[in-house]
Amino acid sequence: MNKVIVAATQNKHKIKEIEAITGEFGMSIIARDEAGIPKIDIVEDGETFEENSYKKAYEIMKLCDKITIADDSGLVVDCLDGAPGVYSARFAGVDGDDKANNRKLVELIKDVPYEKRTARFVSVITMVFPDGETIVARGEVEGNLVLEEQGPNGFGYDPLFVPVGYDITFGEIDPDIKNKISHRANALNKLREKLMAREG
After folding, report:
1. Is the Cβ–Cβ distance between 124 and 53 less than 8 Å?
2. Active-site option among 72, 131, 158, 174
3. How far is CA 21 from CA 110, 135, 194, in A?
4. What whole-number percentage of the chain has pLDDT above 90?
5. What is the pLDDT of residues 21-58, one digit of tens each?
6. How many alpha carbons lie under 13 Å from residue 76 in its C-beta half-sphere?
7. Is the separation of the CB atoms in 195 and 135 below 8 Å?
8. Which of 9, 49, 90, 140 has the most C-beta neighbours closer than 10 Å?
């Protein structure tokens, strides 16, 4: 039986990535506007990616009474005590202003030597079922930060992030390769494992 999952995100790229996994389990994903969810802003006031991811999924699930999936992700920089973390999208003050966020990050780390500019991208995917069941999958990818944006690909902090094992940024890496090694890919792989275990 095909199950419909409602995505808390409107990002079609994210939905496509997630559906590549859930489709194996007879679960197709629709964006929240397709499900008739009113255009509400869910306040992401959690202190962790897990809290925000759950809140987004749970609030949408309450509105549609269907299985709902949400992703919360960001960049954690060691020399900044974990910042920007859950504030990654609005680090410079305006939600989604990638250029301003990158400028602020570079300003804060410019005097730190490369080997100490360690960071990781984190993605937490939460699936909430109407009966209260919850599946949480966390994925990470480790790397270091450069001080100038490099490469046209990706978005957010991608042009500053060099993953371990590579000498180019996520902004320069072929998107197909990035989608295999990224934090979201790692979270999706864990989601796959948990769905397989659930199918039993």
Report:
1. yes
2. 72
3. 39, 14, 11
4. 72
5. 888 888 899 999 888 888 888 888 999 999 999 999 99
6. 18
7. yes
8. 49
Contact 50, 67 (CB under 8 A): no
What is the C-alpha to C-alpha distance for residues 33 and 49, in angstroms, rounded to an integer?
A: 23
> Cβ(7)–Cβ(70) under 8 Å?
yes
- Pair 24, 36: CB distance under 8 Å: no
C-beta separation of 39 from 33 below 8 A: yes
Is residue 72 annotated as part of the catalytic site, yes or no?
A: yes
Across the beta sheet with 118-128, what order do the strands follow? 27-31, 3-7, 67-77, 118-128, 134-145, 161-163
CA pair distance 10, 32, nearest whole angstrom: 7
Question: In one letter, which amino acid is 45?
Answer: D
Cβ atoms 149, 171 nearer than 8 A: yes
> DSSP secondary-structure letter at 129?
-
**Stated pTM of the model:** 0.92
